[in-house]
TrEMBL record, chain A:
This is Carbohydrate ABC transporter substrate-binding protein. The keyword Transport applies. The lineage of its organism: Bacteria, Bacillati, Actinomycetota, Actinomycetes, Kitasatosporales. It comes from Streptomyces spectabilis. PROSITE patterns: PROKAR_LIPOPROTEIN. It comes from the Bacteria.
UniProtKB/TrEMBL annotation, chain B:
Belongs to the binding-protein-dependent transport system permease family. Residues 83-293 form the ABC transmembrane type-1 domain. Gene3D superfamilies: MetI-like (1.10.3720.10). This is Multiple sugar transport system permease protein. It is a multi-pass membrane protein. The chain crosses the membrane at residues 21-42, 87-108, 120-141, 169-190, 272-295. Keywords: Cell membrane, Membrane, Sugar transport, Transmembrane, Transmembrane helix, Transport. InterPro entries: ABC_transporter_permease, MetI-like, MetI-like_sf.
Length: 422, 304
């Protein structure tokens, strides 16, 4: 066999493989295949990935359409989102509620789905607000998970600890834990876990409205109110475990599981996914303690994940039909069967199979007067990513220089928020 | 005489180009030049242009003049540490890791026992990418579960090798050096093999001791290798992105200019103008070194 023959053979072979694929791709024309919905997924971890697969299978069965999932690694998906939406995105993609969604709606990268929302039942007003930009809906919420102070039930019983209702009790509890050699868990190597604590102290001390406008860039970070947040936080610092900046949230979750630490301000999936299945019943939480009685414990930080349609979607009709289904209680049930670390947003969802922890979470959010997302979802992504991550890490590194810290944040905030206005 | 005419004839043919020569030359020179312009100079100049604008990657591009540079120097807390770390990285690789690689090369070259074994062991890390070195460093230096802390057994008061901003940069430079030393060693070994042994013998006859022989004879003859190693050291230092990114996304003590560029341009942040301004700074730093090398090289070529 000569070299030329080999080459010709491979060329023909390659053509035989790729041609049909090309032809089918062309056959659907620019509209895409109407009987297929493609989903851009950021659910790259094993548990949610499998749970979503089950949920989509339920839709396929019901509608007779095909769901094609394109999964991208979680962080990579986030990194490339702007390019993704401007390139050739899937028909539907997974994303987050609140400012994160509004930002893209504002930029005209999303399809408005108010008509789909008209058929929805079982969503509270707070949820609708989180899905709305400029009076129009763009987002179908799917599940959420609250942030709170998580701990092991058995450890609290053994040590005689009691859940803290207000700040003084919280500090006293932290102090006792530290003395017992089981400090408060803390981590911020990933850059975001500490944001939860900042959010909660601000929400409890200054209220939801202030927090929201602070995130929107309307309040000065040099305000006395903000400095007080850092001052309160500093009271907690001595009782944290050491080395927070070198610890990932997974490691902190494992520390909690091994009883090396006493409690942690976390979102529900964080301890949830680090505890082996037979120990999950031992996870408990209490709401972040009250600081100012005026605001009580009204606000709950509960990031909502869900689905949106990109403007460049090639099958808007199919996507909307899919969204209609995603907004039903059954759709959420289908998912939560496979993932016990989140809670359904729909009030009609089946809660009978919930674990005690899920039930408690659902109650916590149901009683909440306000729902906040999370610092990086409540403000501009460029501000959260380039300013706040470093600022909070700097604070953890050196908690004393609050004035300098707030000045630095404020200067950068002005640069960023004014650049967009020009 | 025949030699002379041949040379003259040869000169005449090179001077006159046929049409075909021109086409071939044009293609051979033109394509690389075009690629160079499109792939290298185009983006570089575009970055310089973008650095005077504000753009979020979606909407319109606004001209903001020197605002980005002003913000960068005055308001961006990560900027000066990043510049400092970049220069420190170059200094560390250049003054510690590279000389150490040379020392190892000299030792191995002298044919000590098991020198093949040492050679392969030291060269091993070179095949790893810096990102992999970063992951290995995490396994070794993790606060709670790292090997080093487990061996020290300081569970109550762990050393935060990767999180403590006064320690982590040095740890990362050590980890990066682990790879760099092997690389430098292999280059110098090749160079040392090509040094004419007669030179050393002559020096020995003249009564030079080993140290003198090395610094007066061997090292100067290694000049071409030195230049290559110098260039590689600077490139490696400026490229030190993967390792810090793998460890903690280049934050909190591990800031480098390349990381800041990524942080601002890639991802949801999309401060493309601002990121470009940082890129221009990095470009200037690199150009500084490139110019120094070029001047050195040209001067050397003229002397030769």
């Amino acid at each position: 066999m000569s070299r030329r023959n080999v080459l010709r053979g491979t060329a023909l072979g390659a053509g035989a493989v790729t041609l049909p694929a090309l032809l089918t791709a062309c056959g659907d024309g620019p509209g895409g295949n109407k009987n297929e919905v493609t989903v851009g997924s950021n659910a790259s971890d094993a548990v949610p990935k499998e749970a979503f697969a089950q949920a989509f299978k339920a839709y396929e069965k019901e509608s007779g359409k095909r769901v094609e999932v394109n999964t991208t690694e979680h962080n990579e998906f986030q990194q490339n989102i702007t390019r993704y939406l401007q390139g050739s995105p899937d028909n539907v993609f997974m994303w987050f509620a609140g400012y994160r969604m509004q930002y893209f709606a504002e930029k005209g990268l999303l399809v408005e789905i108010s008509d789909v929302w008209k058929g929805f039942r079982g969503f509270s007003k707070a949820l609708k607000d989180q899905s709305t930009h400029d009076g129009e809906q763009y987002f179908v919420p799917y599940y959420y998970y609250p942030w709170a102070v998580f701990h092991r039930k058995s450890l609290f019983e053994k040590q005689g600890y009691e859940q803290a209702g207000n700040w003084d009790q919280f500090i006293a509890l932290a102090k006792r834990m530290h003395k017992d050699g089981i400090p408060v868990a803390f981590c911020d190597k990933d850059g975001w876990p500490a944001m939860g604590t900042f959010d909660y102290i601000d929400l409890r001390l200054n209220g939801y409205d202030f927090h929201k406008s602070l995130m929107a860039g309307e309040e000065a970070w040099t305000d006395r109110k903000v400095k007080q947040v850092f001052d309160l936080w500093r009271e907690l610092m001595p009782y944290y475990q050491k080395g927070a900046l070198g610890r990932t949230w997974e490691e902190a979750g494992q520390g909690l599981q091994r009883r090396r630490t006493g409690m942690a301000v976390f979102g529900m999936p964080h301890p949830g996914s680090q505890f082996p299945e037979n120990e999950r019943d031992d996870i408990d939480f209490f709401p972040f303690p009250e600081i100012d009685p005026q605001f009580g414990r009204d606000a709950v930080e509960a990031p909502i994940d869900g689905f949106l349609i990109p403007k460049k979607s090639r099958n808007v009709e199919g996507a909307k039909d899919f969204m209609k289904w995603l907004g039903t209680a059954e759709a959420e049930d289908a998912y939560l069967k496979g993932d016990p670390n989140n809670v359904a947003v729909n009030e009609d969802a089946d809660t009978s199979k919930y674990s005690p922890l899920q039930k408690k979470s659902a109650a916590l959010v149901a009683e909440a007067r306000q729902i906040s997302q999370f610092l990086d979802r409540d403000t501009r992504p460029d501000f959260a990513q380039t300013v706040m991550i470093k600022a909070l890490q700097d604070f953890i590194d050196n908690p004393k220089d609050v004035d300098g810290l707030c000045n630095r944040i404020e200067r950068q905030k002005k640069d960023i928020f004014s650049a967009s206005a020009s | 005489m025949p030699q002379n005419t041949a040379r003259r004839a040869g000169r005449r043919t090179t001077r006159r180009f046929t049409r075909r020569d021109i086409v071939v030359l044009g293609a051979l020179l033109g394509i690389p030049v075009l690629l160079d312009v499109v792939i290298v100079w185009g983006p570089a100049l575009a970055s310089v242009g973008l650095s005077f604008t504000s753009w979020d990657g979606i909407g319109d591009i606004h001209w903001v003049g020197g605002d980005n540079y002003e913000n960068l120097v005055q308001d961006y807390p990560a900027f000066w540490p990043a510049v400092r770390h970049n220069l420190l990285w170059i200094a560390f690789l250049g003054l510690v890791a590279t000389p150490f690689g040379l020392l190892l090369a000299v030792l191995v070259d002298r044919g000590i026992r098991f020198s093949r074994f040492y050679q392969s062991v030291l060269y091993m890390p070179v095949v790893l990418s810096l990102a992999v070195v970063g992951f290995m460093a995490q396994l070794l230096l993790g606060t709670d579960q790292g090997v080093v802390n487990t061996i020290i057994g300081n569970e109550q008061d762990p050393v935060d090798w990767l999180g403590d901003s006064s320690v982590n940069l040095w740890m990362m430079m050590l980890a990066a050096s682990w790879r760099h030393v092997g690389y430098v060693m292999i280059l110098y070994l090749a160079g040392l093999k090509s040094v004419d042994p007669e030179l050393k013998e002559a020096a020995a006859i003249d009564g030079a001791n080993e140290r003198q022989t090395f610094f007066r004879i061997t090292f100067p003859t290694l000049r071409p290798v030195n230049v290559v190693v110098g260039v590689i050291t600077v490139i490696e230092a400026l490229r030190a992105f993967d390792i810090v990114y793998a460890v903690n996304k280049g934050r909190n003590g591990l800031e480098l200019l390349s990381v800041l560029i990524t942080d601002n341009i890639i991802g949801e942040a999309s401060r493309i103008g601002f990121g470009s301004a940082i890129a221009v700074v990095l470009l200037s730093v690199s150009l500084g070194f490139v110019v120094v090398f070029l001047v050195q090289e040209l001067r050397g070529a003229r002397e030769r």
